[in-house]
Amino acid sequence: MTKQKQKRNRGIILTPEGLEKLETARAELEYMVNFGERFTYEKISELTNLDLNTIKKILAGKEGVDKRSLEKYFLAFKLNLTEAYYTKPNPHQRQDLNEAVSVDHFFGRISQLNILKDWLLKDRCRLVTIVGMGGMGKTTLSIKCAEQIGEKFDCVVWKSLRDAPPVEEILANLIEFVSEGRETKANLPERVGERITRLIDYFRSLRCLVLLDNAESLMDSGSRVGKYRHGSEGYGELFRRVGETNHLSCLMLTTREKPKEVAILEGEKLTVRSLQLEGLSQEEGQEIFKIRGLAGSELELKALSDRYTGNPLALKVVATTIQDLFDGNITQFLDQENAVFGDIRDILDQQFERLSDLEKEIMYWLAIAREPISIAQLQEDLVLQVSPIKLLEALESLSRRSLIEKNASRFTQQPVVMEYLISRLIEEVCEEIVRQKLRLIRDHALIKATAKDYLRENQIRFILQPIIKGLLAVLRNKKALEERLTTILAMLRGTSPLEQGYTAGNIINLLCQLKTDLTDYDFSSLCVWQADLRQARLHQVNFQNADLAKSVFAENFGGIWSVAFSPDGQYLAAGDTKGDILLRRVEDGQPIRSFKGHHGWIVSLAFSPDGNLLASGSCDCTAKLWEVSTGECLHSLEEHEQEVWSVAFSPDGKTLASGCDDRKARLWSVSTGKCLKVFQGHLSEVLSVVFSLDGQKLISGSQDNTIRFWDIETEKCKKILQAHDDGVRSISISPDGQMLASSSNDRTVKLWNLKTDECLNVFQGHSNVVLSVTFCPQGNLLASTGIDQTVRLWSVETAECLKVFPGHSNMINSVAFSPQGNILASGSYDQTVKLWDINTYQCFKTLQGYSNQALSVTFSPNGQILVSGGHDQRIRLWNLNTGKVVKTLHDHTNWIFSVAFNPNNNLLASGSADKTVKLWDVNTGKAIKTFWGHQAVVRSIIFSSDGQILASGSEDGTIRLWDINTGKTLKTLRGHQAEIWSIALSFNGQTLASASFDKTVKLWDVYTGECLQTLHGHDSWVWSIAFSPDNQTLVSTSIDQTIRFWQVNSGECKRIWKDDIGNSQLVAFSNDGQILASCNQDHNIRLWQLSTEKCFKALHGHTALVNSISFSPDGYTLVSGSEDETIKLWDLKSGKCVKTLIVEKPYESMNITGVKGLTQAKINNLKALGAINSYFQ
After folding, report:
1. How far apart are CA 295 and CA 451, in angstroms?
2. 1159 belongs to a structural domain
3. pLDDT tens digits, one per residue of 257-310
4. Residue 505: which domain range?
5. Which of 55, 121, 513, 870 has the fewest other C-beta atoms within 10 Å?
6. With a threshold of 0.90, does the pTM exceed it?
């Protein structure tokens, strides 16, 4: 890769911490010797013996100065310059105005523009607000200002608040931008105040101009001025602190309502100011009339401008109205009394009432869409069929009235018009539901289940939720609202069965938003369009003879380990934890077919160059070749000894390469399925393989930290790159074959020159293992992803992180670009595949799976109750005699990884992927406390022997000890360098053990929090640990395929069991300490007699990995929870499974007999998730 020459960076600048230190010291000295007045530059020059130019450079923080100058500055204020206080300067001025609207016509506003320039450049204002009613041109003015003076700032960024994004999200985006991707949502503090502090730190070291548009969206409509809507209160703190705190930057707001913080802080001589934007002058307004083709006398035009106070939007609408309705006669228009309006709503009301029914319907649909849509989409949305000609005529009419805008071949509305329509829609729908007179709710979808993800989320926030709020205000309570909605459903079934429309779909979406229990609801013979049912539990719901067109359901797939696009970009394949491969059409996400045959996770996928074949690698120790058109398995490649982590086709498509846990890479004949060559030399698992573009070399990345280059003809290793510090997880070759990218457990991505072996760049930013990396087809971008739940997009040339895509709720195992490079697919263990638009950085499609693995199982101390936790965020208490659920506890918002009883049987604790620990009353099933503090998934929890302390281990690398009475953290135990996967308490209650991905086990004193010992010996991640009942021995399992027995007192490893079958993942001691139970990747449970070290029973029955095991208190029974979604009870004497417990699926007994609007594939999917179809039962 040819690198561009850059001007050499010289000198250093202050870090935010350094500037804060200096400013604090200076303020203290000013208080002592200068009566609190700020020192002038001349005075600082006198104190520091530095010239004025150097002082300004230091304080501006843009140009570098020599280290001696900084030292002199610090010494003048009795400070020492440490490395934390300085860094090298970044010479690149950066702007992000991508979201800003284009300013094609700028009418007047010259004086206001000059005022803003003076405030920002001369007076160095910190907080500036442009205030005015809708349509006044606030946005246009702010963007024009940024365009003209942006070069004076280090960073310029524009963000819209129209959809009231959470303040945490805006802060994360701003910090990511100003920090050049060094800080992202994944590694920022959770608290809003701490994020604001971090942003202001950058505001002190950089001169930033941040423009936030439509700040009125943060305010609660219908409330007193300045009151924030629920969830937006944090913006008030942001505005206050930016205005109060000394820094170099400026935050500019545009808003219809002045925030109360601005009103308190502003002043003519202060650094917080407001510009009230009034209407255009007569001369400026005439420019609008000329463009609209409206002519008149000077008096007429003045009267017209005065009547509408120069509001630019109102003038545009009025000019069109005069042309269309009054034949261009301004006087006749002015004579109309009803033409007078007090605000923009009045004129929009007047315009709206003049529209035809079709035009009104179009206006509502455009507002609901929230982005430009095509005529074809409008036609599809309309309930009544309308000819394309009539639709086009209506759109042209609306365009002439200035009510809609055309963008290429798509149509949309100005924000103020869209807001008006949404407000009107909410009011009328509320009235329709209350009066049970249905029109708008029948003809319009309040949310579109098939819309792009980010649009649907905004439809929920700005349409569905406000409607619920309005209805609750009238009907008083949730129960009354549910009854009203149910009454409407019954009325529909009685009077309008299968009438086309959106009423039933809207009602079910409202009920889902209310979190109503839909069990036994009746939607039979109804048109249920655009219902989003992916997260709904629809037990015994009746959809018999219903029309379910355009409704969306969860799909029957598990966590996603691999994704791949077909060479033509039309299809996406995804491999899951159930051993299935899903083929989806990219355009609409529709299922094409499934490939079934594997018995373990599908961890790698690759299409052949011609797209006819699909290769898969699996944890079942096989690779397979499939025919894409039929789903037939052509060859099963079974010479692997362990998990197959990577597959890749040669450029000519005749050969397949595979990389395996057995430390070998293999080449296979695609036509015969025969193994052609075996490449040996790696010292650990081969996790990734790729071919060189000429097909002469095979490149492999391994857990042994190296990348090897093999000559395919000779099978010789030609060179070895010592690539990373902790394993190579993924490699990808650039489209031109000149570069190689690698990702690692060491949290980095590296870029290599294949000719010179030089490391060209190190991409840093991930906070955990980077599992996947890939080049885009154009070669200028890299995408990476991993355990930190983020997808990152990088510039290949600069190594800059261009964007961080949040949204997944668990580790992301695979990422792939479409062949065109415009779409990025990510597959996650959270059971979703997400498709991202590379141009907008938005997620436009999520494929939602469903798999309810049993992640944790345990007995109550008295042995009477079994408790389980899993994927569906619910804890279940089971009656062991009947095998039925007696109580379901639901308060977590993510998977439940660990459950534990206290010694008295009356309390239950749970640890979750939502980063919380919860304490439950077993008798009532209520959550009585939530423990906050962990910054990542809580993997393991355990009570102390007296039940007063609860310990939790987390992927954030810490253990927390909680007082169960107060909910406070007693101690936080730190020391591990990676995720903690398991914790265990000795039976005497004195010692706590923790197992970590840093390859160690640690022993802790429960009472002091002291780390007593660190046990080294495992070569890879440590999964599970267990104390023997006599407290003398600790057992640990690891991905290195060993079980180790440690002497607790000495920390000595007494013996090692090598597991040849696979990675041992779980261990548990029987209560008498005589038996050890273990599980590995063959899905079986083994019982070992410790006195003989012999396996005396293997418990067969699970069809997927076992996640959790536990012995009953009486020692006669073992319980196991598995990825196969079952819980099994085993009789230890006979080794037989005596009971299998299965949790109800989301659509259990949902009646879909005679449904319309679903393909057979979708019907089969619903049946797999519990639905019944009496025609085939």
Report:
1. 43
2. no
3. 888 899 899 998 899 999 988 888 888 888 778 777 788 888 888 888 776 767
4. 348-397+407-553
5. 121
6. no
